[in-house]
Amino acid sequence: MTSPLANTVQVKSGTALNLQDAHSARVRIFRTTATIVHRRDEVEHERRCRAGLADINSMELLDVLLDLPHEIAVPRSSLTPAVLRVLQRAPANVVQIDSASVTRLASPAVTPVLAVVYASKWRDGLERASEFASYIPRMFVVPEAPSNSEEVLAEASWYGVGVAVGPRAAPTMVLEPEPLADWQPTTGWWWFCEQVYRHTVDQV
Fold first, then answer.
1. For 13-100, where are the E strands, in sequence order?
2. CA 83, CA 68: separation in Å to the nearest integer?
3. Distances (CA, A) of 181 to 10, 62, 171, 178
4. Which position among 8, 43, 48, 193 has the lowest Cβ density within 10 Å, counted as fewest Cβ atoms?
5. In sequence order, which residues have a C-beta less than 8 Å from that of residue 91 and are 6 or more positions away?
6. Domain spans of the chain, in order of start
7. Residue 57: CA count within 13 A, CB half-sphere
8. 21: number of Cβ within 10 Å
9. What span, in angstroms and rounded, lies between the C-alpha atoms of 148 and 164?
């Protein structure tokens, strides 16, 4: 679904909360439930739908795929036997393998851009939102500010976690989430993308 946050939270273009054209999915992961705002690669999504390919859930396979360029043939002779064995076990339409080369066909079908946790208490919201620290910017929404709001906002700011206060339908942003510093794609990040994608397909 289209992200409701894009309509309920005032955001500025170019910030961590530029949510225009984004979608959201309710995801249960890391022992918590969060709304993951994401953008979908429509080309890859349609390719997977045509091929009957859902999420890729093998960390071993994703680790190998991450080292291969997308849609560029790589000589088989440049890959180790162990890597070739992993690729040969891959689901159909993830890679194309012939006698001379290997080509990675798959890429992340969604790119998560923000994790939003809804909580009744600040401490719970901060701890649950922090579970996503290695993957995407994160924030939590609580119904009201505590009496020591300056102190808790300072703590949230230290961890780079954004905060919004008020009803779910129209929270007021009081602290923007920080973008991830020196971010690089990792196997764990691609696995996270696949988990989000699985939930988006389930919720269609």
1. 23-29, 32-40, 74-75, 95-97
2. 11
3. 23, 23, 26, 8
4. 43
5. 53, 56
6. 1-52+108-204, 57-105
7. 7
8. 10
9. 15
Which residue type is seen at 25? A
The helix (run of H) or strand (run of E) holding residue 118 is: strand 110-118
Pairing relationship of beta strands 138-142 and 110-118 according to DSSP bridges: parallel
β-strand pairing of 162-165 with 138-142: parallel
Per DSSP, the three-state class of 104 is: strand
* 64 vs 71: CA distance, rounded Å: 14
pTM of the complete model: 0.84
Reported confidence tier of residue 76, pLDDT bands at 50, 70, 90: very high
